[in-house]
Design a protein that fits this description.
Blueprint lengths: L2 E5 L2 H9 L5 E4 L12 H8 L17 H7 L6 H7 L2 E5 L4 H17 L8 E4 L10 H4 L6 E3 L2 H14 L5 H5 L11 H9 L11 H11 L22 H12 L6 E2 L8 H5 L1 H8 L4 E2 L1 H7 L5 H4 L3 E4 L2 E4 L14
Parallel strand pairs: 1-2, 1-3, 3-4
Antiparallel strand pairs: 4-5, 6-7, 8-9
Helix pairs in contact: 5-7, 5-9, 10-14
């Protein structure tokens, strides 16, 4: 085995392997855009050699067994596997979660490489969703590829520490820095800032998008999800958008009415009748939802808030708000 590709999307990893771009392609898929971040110790253990980590908490747990057993690498840590490979390429898509995984991995590599940066590490400047591209096309695609340098490591370290800070201020300050060595990263910074509660509405950009879509006539729940053909992919994935919709519809003072089934869990999906009720929900905006959409009401004035943005805990008493006017055109 000589060629390894790391990515943050399982379908993309499968396509890259089938396209012959690597001998082994591995997806590393923690969800950093949702919920509180795991501790430094837990994240380090995830990338370390297997020593008894609980099921699902080792970085190779979700890689198809035949793929890792073929090369005898099932129990290796990230560093050990990279050392076995002639070439290691990082293929991370532009979406915010993939970019967060990228800076996390670069920060981890920075802490574990020797004084001399390995010459087998490369960053591929991916600007497309790999899972949407058939293997035959993936085999032909050409993305710019650059050897990873100390500048990559230092930028990633600064960014990862900013996301792990207890307030969003260090993340906001990244906008004052040159981030061009990670070409897809600056849009990620802005997209995540937009998920902070809005100054006037108390809702993040994805929650506001749900209200906008319902107002525009998308009244079935699955018309609001990122897999819908009319919608572009945003910050959050399938299960996370389901949770956002529930937050808006089940709050003490809801912004959305008409949700016919919940909670949005795997158990609900396994029960056909419940899933059908969910799909057939006829959603509409409540008077509060309409007022929020016009910027005349604030969701947090009527409802308890408790969620996480990176390592920032957001509550009614400790609300960090976002105002896009703060960014000069």
């Amino acid at each position: 085995m000589t060629r390894l590709i790391l990515t943050a999307d399982a379908s993309g990893a499968g396509g890259l392997k089938e396209a012959g771009r690597a001998d082994l392609a591995i997806a590393i898929e923690p969800r950093f855009v949702w919920g509180p971040l795991a501790s430094d110790a837990a994240l380090t253990a995830m990338l370390s050699a297997r020593t008894g980590q609980a099921d699902g908490l080792h970085w190779l747990d979700n890689v198809p067994t035949p793929r890792v057993e073929k090369f005898g690498v099932r129990d290796l840590g990230l560093i050990e596997l990279c050392q076995r490979c002639e070439k290691v390429e990082l293929w991370f898509e532009p979406d915010p979660n993939s970019q967060l995984v990228l800076i996390w991995l670069l920060d981890y590599l920075r802490a574990h490489v020797t004084a001399v940066i390995p010459t087998n590490l490369f960053l591929c400047h991916v600007d497309a969703r790999l899972g949407d591209i058939i293997p035959q096309e993936l085999a032909k695609l050409k993305f710019a590829t650059r050897a990873i340098t100390s500048d990559h490591f230092e930028t990633a370290h600064l960014a990862w520490q900013a996301y792990r800070a207890p307030t969003p201020r260090p993340w906001f300050n990244l906008l004052n820095r040159d981030l061009s060595i990670l070409p897809q990263f600056r849009p990620c910074v802005l997209e995540l800032l937009a998920e902070l509660p809005g100054r006037a509405t108390g809702l993040g950009a994805s929650e506001m998008r749900i209200l906008e879509l319902i107002s525009a006539g998308h009244t079935r729940p699955f018309e609001l999800f990122p897999h819908h053909p009319q919608l572009s992919r945003g910050v959050f994935g399938y299960w996370e958008v389901g949770a956002l919709l529930e937050r808006l519809a089940l709050a003490p003072a809801p912004a959305v009415s008409g949700l016919a089934e919940w909670p949005f869990t795997l158990e609900m999906h396994d029960e056909r009748s419940r899933l059908e009720r969910y799909k057939e929900s006829e959603l509409s905006l409540t008077p509060l939802g309409k007022a929020i959409l016009t910027g005349t009401e604030d969701f947090s004035r009527h409802n308890p808030i408790h969620r996480w943005w990176g390592n920032t805990e957001l509550t009614n008493e400790r609300m960090w708000r976002w105002d896009p006017v703060l960014i000069a055109p």
